[in-house]
Amino acid sequence: MSNSCPILGPKCELCNCSGSGCQSQFPGLKVEWPELKGVSGLQAKATIESDNPRVTAFIYPQGVYLPSINCCNRVVLYVPADDCPNGPVLNRPIVG
Question: SUPFAM superfamilies per the record (predicted)?
C-alpha cells in the first residue's frame, strides 16, 4: 500500500505551550505519547487521534524543516524518509 508523505492536517492553531504544558487546555485528554516512539507512523497517528480527538497527527519524513511554532491542534511525527509514512516514529510525540 502506497501513501503520500508528508501526511498533513488542518491549519495550525497557535498556542504558547507544548507537551505536558498544554494539559490545562486538554483536561482529561493525553498530550504526550512517549510509548509511540518506534511504532509505525500510521499506527501512531491513529492512536493519537483516538486518545485526543482535538488534535491531528502530522507525519513528516525525517529531515524536513518545520518552523518552531507551537500548534495546539497538532502532533508532529517524524519517520524515516525512505519509509514514510509507514516507518517507525523517531521522535517523542507531543502536542505543540
Answer: CI-2 family of serine protease inhibitors
